[in-house]
Amino acid sequence: MISIALFGPTLVSFVLCLVVMRLGIKDAPDGGRKTQAAPVPSAGGLAVLATALAFYFALASPNVAGFVPLILLVAAAALVGLVDDVRGLQARYKFGLSGLMCVLAAAYGPHLETFYLPGGPDGGWPLPAWIAILGAALWLFVIINGTNFMDGANGLAMGSAASMLYPTALMLFPHAWFSADSALPGTMVVLSVLTAQAILGFLFWNLRGKLYAGDVGALGAGAVIAVSGLVLARTYSVWVPATLTLPFLVDILLTMAWRARQGGNLFHPHRDHAYQLFLRAGWPHWCVALLWWGFCIVCGVAPVVAIDASTPSDATAFWIFITLCTTGSALWFWQRAVIGGRLKREGL
């Protein structure tokens, strides 16, 4: 059973990617953010999500309190992405739909009851229900759409997603079988591992530029990261999933702040993310992807090693987040000054 769960999704996803490539869904160059020389088969994320969900329902039970709204969000996010890949959706409709889905999932699914900051109560500040719901919805919205923002280099977004899901599953594992409230963490362990393994089958094609994930892949994988992170936050601390997703959050939030200061449209396609600066500077896609995977490994290993699963510390999680967030932000500003400055001088 374990070997089927580990290797089955990779093989099935690999084969389904061949099927998806024959569907005729293409991602064409647009002279802006999409810089490939010719149209490339897209919607490879359909193979990933179909594989992960099929294996989940074959191996595990969806009859877990709080799980149905989360899995419906994953399916809905993937569906919106697929419609965008096939027919095209205006950004305002896509963001509006994802916002509505996130609010509903947060309202009917699990959300935080406390929020920790230094100087406050040891267990964190109690949260009114409406703040907890809005906070959960904001987390879901940012991670789902942020993963899509980062999907602009072969292997980067989906490989990073897998690199985030493995430590998520590892940290939830002790609570999946050795805790009184084990059902939801156990469910997320299974879903996270299956999704990560399915991504591996897709990466064989994606790293070579033969197949793109499409919005169905980026939004769907982002939804799995977001919902598993929500369960991780309830199990440990909100700062743990925030740390795991720092390689995305730092680039997304700082780039949006930078574009706002420059007077740019925050939701218009662009090539100003840190990873895009590397591509514009001539780095090959696989090098940029490996760099982000390395960032994800660092942000995943730190909480896994430093936080005791039996007695998780909010304070430890907070300071790990602050340390890595500060380091990542410093690297972002350094790259913006050095590489971004050179690209500006050269008109690239």
From TrEMBL:
Keywords: Cell membrane, Magnesium, Membrane, Metal-binding, Transferase, Transmembrane, Transmembrane helix. It comes from Hyphomonas johnsonii MHS-2. It is found in: Cell membrane. The chain crosses the membrane at residues 6-25, 37-58, 64-83, 95-112, 124-144, 156-177, 183-205, 212-232, 238-260, 281-305, 317-334. It comes from the Bacteria. GO terms for biological process: cell wall macromolecule biosynthetic process; cell wall organization; lipopolysaccharide biosynthetic process. The keyword Membrane applies. GO terms for molecular function: metal ion binding; phosphotransferase activity, for other substituted phosphate groups. InterPro entries: Glycosyl_transferase_4 (IPR000715). Its main location: membrane. This is Glycosyl transferase family protein. Its cofactor is Mg(2+). It is a multi-pass membrane protein. GO terms for cellular component: plasma membrane.
